[in-house]
Amino acid sequence: MDKYNVTGMSCAACSAHVEKAVSKVPGVDKVQVNLLTNSMTVEGSALVAEIVAAVDKAGYGASLAGGSGQQQAASGLDELRDTETPAMVKRLAASVVFLLILMYFSMGHMMWGWPLPGFLVDNHVGMGIVQMLLAGIVMIINQKFFVNGFKGAIHGGPNMDTLVAMGSGVSFAWSVYVLLDMTVAVVNGSDTRVMSDMNQLYFESAAMILALITIGKTLESYSKGRTTDALKGLMKLAPETAVLVRDGQEVEVKVDQVQPGDIFAVRPGAKIPVDGVVVEGASAVDESALTGESIPVDKETGDSVSGGTVNTSGYIRCRATRVGNDTALSKIISMVGDAAASKAPIARLADRVSGVFVPAVLLIALATFIIWMLVGQSVGFSLARAISVLVISCPCALGLATPVAIMVGNGMGAKHGILFKTAETLESAGKVQIIALDKTGTITEGRPSVTDIIPEEGMTEEDLMTTAASLESRSEHPLAAAIMDWAEEHDVKLAEIDGFKILSGSGLTAKIGGSTVTGGNLKFIESKAEVSDMLRRKADELADKGRTPMFFARDGRVIGIVAAADTIKPESAEAIQQLRNMGIHTVMLTGDNARTARAVGAAAGVDEVVAGVLPDGKEKVIRQLQQRGKVAMVGDGINDAPALTRADTGIAIGAGTDVAIDAADVVLMNSRLTDVPAAVRLSRATIRNIKENLGWAFIYNVICIPVAAGLFINLNGWAMNPMLGALAMSLSSVCVVSNALRLNLFKLNDSRRDKPVKNAIEPGECIIEETSAEISDDINKNDDLTDKKTTTGENEMEKTIKIKGMMCTHCEDHVRKSLESLPQVDSAAPSHEAGEAVLQLNADVAEADLKKAVEEAGYEFIG
Hints:
Largest sheet: 7 strands, mixed
Radius of gyration: 36 Å
Low-confidence stretches: 68-74, 770-795
Strand order of the largest sheet: 14-26-25-24-15-22-23
Shape: elongated
């Protein structure tokens, strides 16, 4: 997709004409023109020169937009810089000065008896000439209307400027004709004819139309400039320089000279120039500009940092990992800019109307003049009605109704770490009826933590955790990490250990203070010590809650249980409740066993749980859900990518993988699940705003054009002055833009006004027709459930391998990731309960490779 800058557009008719011209170029598959940003996106194989030529032929200018990284941000900032409003203000000031002088001569003397120069007293022809000269000056000051208007008409694309130019030009031309007739009447001594002609001079109308339209365009230009504030704010984050460390010396260079692998230094208060990893020092980094999170994040050696964020405290050195277009900031800028340049489906009606709007208005104005002449009205009266029709019609309001709201809505989202990739996504997110959520890393933290500590009678919690932490300090198991995190948080002093061993059967042993300490699951510990009934019951209760109990024994006596689980994020239950209040049906998808999945689902409050699902199975569930309505998928991992792509709206948690982010339509920079209902809320508010804008634009034209044409004169005497029509046209666009700016006041996280979506699924209704096991079986049997576009036609092979050492769902995740890294393995479904993994293969794989993958994950390959 290529992006172009387009010059010369002034209204929706212009953008429609450019779009029509470019769409005819051979090789162009899709084209979208954005009036707000004066940009155009083109998809296809057409040459740049051919596209630029087509735009030039249509009467406008075009150039390819380009650049990379911070250069692109700088050039984009130049493009968005409001240079139009200052020029409009100068033009307006000059117009008003000469208009006031004109109004003094045309109305001041006649209505209020203001004094005139001696040579104009009782000199009607001289008065007319002065008005003509002053009106001509105002027309020259605003010549842009005439140049653009007639240029568009010549190229077959009449626009708003055409209407304004014709309205003002016809008023001026008619007044010149009347002035000539007045001159002849003076020569012939016809005072009655002179006074009649004097009342038909419209020089002040010709000038007033231009001045009032310029007032409206100035206000519109200022308001449009404000709609891009969020995007300009992001672009200003891009640092211009970086401090590189070369041969032990710090050298300041331009940021585009930084290459991956370079070491750069960041002092307190300075911006981080590019994405990187901390290699020296520690600090707190303010990431609020990217994530919306106001609290600085602590960074130390090994942690990643993002370009555009601010180092608030310590001195750090980092190794550059992503530069130019690859940095997170550049991707965000690109994403927000692309979304603003795209069009929402709701704008299609306005686009169709805009394409024929101006020609239709010209025909209505001509018909108005002819009809009034046929019913016996004077030329002056008939012209006044036709001119009113020309100047009151407003295609700009139609053209701006959608893009200004999309721009402001996207900007609001970006401020809060919610990025919509396209305008279509921004619209579709608010129509979602079902949201499917991946469990691990989305609803849960994605890592285990200690949930329960149950010492045996006669033991203290402190003694149990000191023993457990000391034993697990040598283990690399995920559950060991959970215990060590707890120990560090509670300042547990570890004891010296000797003879540490990992035993077959999922257990550990070591000497601590002369005693033999063992740890492991129930099956393992039963072979080493007697387990009381109380601890057995507690273990069963913990397992029912989706927690993994770990038993510890000392010298053949069980001293207690430490349970760990992938805990639910603090905000997950609240987020899911907010979604349900919106009338959205929630479904949790997970590869975990049904027992664990049900426990997590109940705690989170989702409507349905689908467990034991492979990546392809998730995609099939999404397709099944789509039979009941619009579906969004929320996930963060590589195995979520097929489901994210299949869903009507894919939502990626920003802390997840690049693959998930690339596959998604909406990216949440934070890992907060409450940003999901916030995204839906923002989408609904933006679409509501667009509907208000379109409604105003259509109703304004439907009502005002008949009034301007004089349709109600015989009913109630409503006759519109052309100057009043010009004022109404000016304010119509300002109203649309101002209404869109109201979105800046919208509170994304305020759930008090949430309402259920239309056709909402009844709470508690089960909409998944098959069980998780059936879904997995369908995939395993390769029953052609995959999309035809991705089917290879080759039968997948299934292989089951035995594995020892898996104790929990986290063990399963480790094994799954390691096995799926093999190119021959499409998917892996480990089960710690069964002690095996079921593999779906696209080609035969050597047993040695499988063994290596399992052992690299830290487990024993049986066969």
